[in-house]
Specification:
alpha+beta; five-stranded antiparallel sheet; four-stranded mixed sheet; about 15% strand
Length: about 300
């Protein structure tokens, strides 16, 4: 792993950390979502409030994971100069680009609808982000809530899914992790790409920050190769089904066009909200809902 820059000096008030102890802190983990759907932890992001309405965001990259990721998986964090290789990036009294791109501003017309959808009765754009699966159209990054304390747990089926960066799982031995090669590979992939340490009951270290730095590119490459093989088999199966006359493709969501037109009219006139419109058309996906609306205009 390359060295982290500890000699860099802030260049303005925005990049200079606020002093004192924050009165409130909320934390998340930035994750890169692979095309296969797996989530890889790349940084911690904290929102801190201080007295006199001062606030700051702090982004702390997980460099030992980031350094092993190919450009097809991770292209950086918007608004952050990754080439500086800082341990922490500060944005004091300033909403960083990463947050602004994926959260509603106070001036947004449907702001209170969006807040209501996630159960918020006040405006807190960072908390809103933690309660959604919102992604920017410009990248593959999401934010999930981070626990306040690190956990140490005995390994068992399902344990790893709840573990976060810095957590530790205890195993009897590496052999005891899984009964199959596929199961073992899966556990190691998720532990390595999410910053979870694996240690034996006697204290022997199997996976930690140092070993992750060399393991990340290996487990990522293995995952991508496996995905290519699965995709090739799937396409082969589809082609065979087509030859046999058994392939019909994905069935589109059936929506009553009369209801859709009425909903579109009421939505356009401000009579109903998007949430109510989706409920009436029985469409759960916003992207699908808007695609159906665009279809009415053709």
């Amino acid at each position: 792993m390359q060295a982290v820059n500890t000699a860099w000096q802030p260049i303005n008030s925005i990049t200079t950390p606020l002093t004192g102890s924050p009165s409130y802190t909320n934390s998340g983990i930035i994750k890169a979502v692979m095309k296969t759907g797996e989530k890889i932890s790349v940084a911690q992001i904290d929102y801190q409030e201080f007295d006199e309405e001062n606030f700051q965001y702090v982004i702390s990259p997980y460099w030992e994971i980031i350094d092993g990721l190919p450009a097809s998986v991770f292209q950086g964090i918007p608004g952050i100069d990754m080439e500086l290789r800082l341990e922490r990036y500060y944005r004091a009294n300033y909403t960083p680009t990463f947050i602004a791109e994926r959260t509603p501003s106070e001036s947004r017309e449907d702001l209170w609808e969006l807040l209501e959808e996630v159960g918020l009765e006040y405006y807190d754009r960072f908390e809103w982000l933690l309660r959604t699966t919102m992604r920017s159209a410009n990248d593959n990054l999401i934010v999930e809530r981070r626990r306040g304390v690190q956990e140490v747990a005995e390994f068992s089926a399902g344990t790893l899914s709840a573990m976060q960066y810095g957590d530790k799982i205890i195993v009897d031995s590496m052999v005891a992790i899984a009964d199959t090669t596929a199961g073992f590979t899966d556990v190691i992939f998720h532990a390595v790409t999410n910053g979870v340490d694996i240690v034996s009951r006697s204290g022997e270290i199997f996976v930690d920050a140092m070993t992750r730095a060399t393991m990340v590119p290996i487990v990522i490459a293995q995952r991508m190769i496996n995905q290519r093989e699965r995709s090739a088999k799937r396409l082969e199966g589809i082609e065979q089904a087509k030859r046999d006359g058994k392939y019909t493709g994905r069935k589109p969501i059936d929506v009553d066009q009369n209801i859709l037109r009425e909903v579109a009219r009421e939505l356009d006139e401000g009579i109903i909200s998007v949430k109510e419109a989706m409920k009436r058309t029985k469409i759960s996906s916003r992207s699908t809902f808007y695609r159906k609306l665009r279809g009415l205009q053709k």
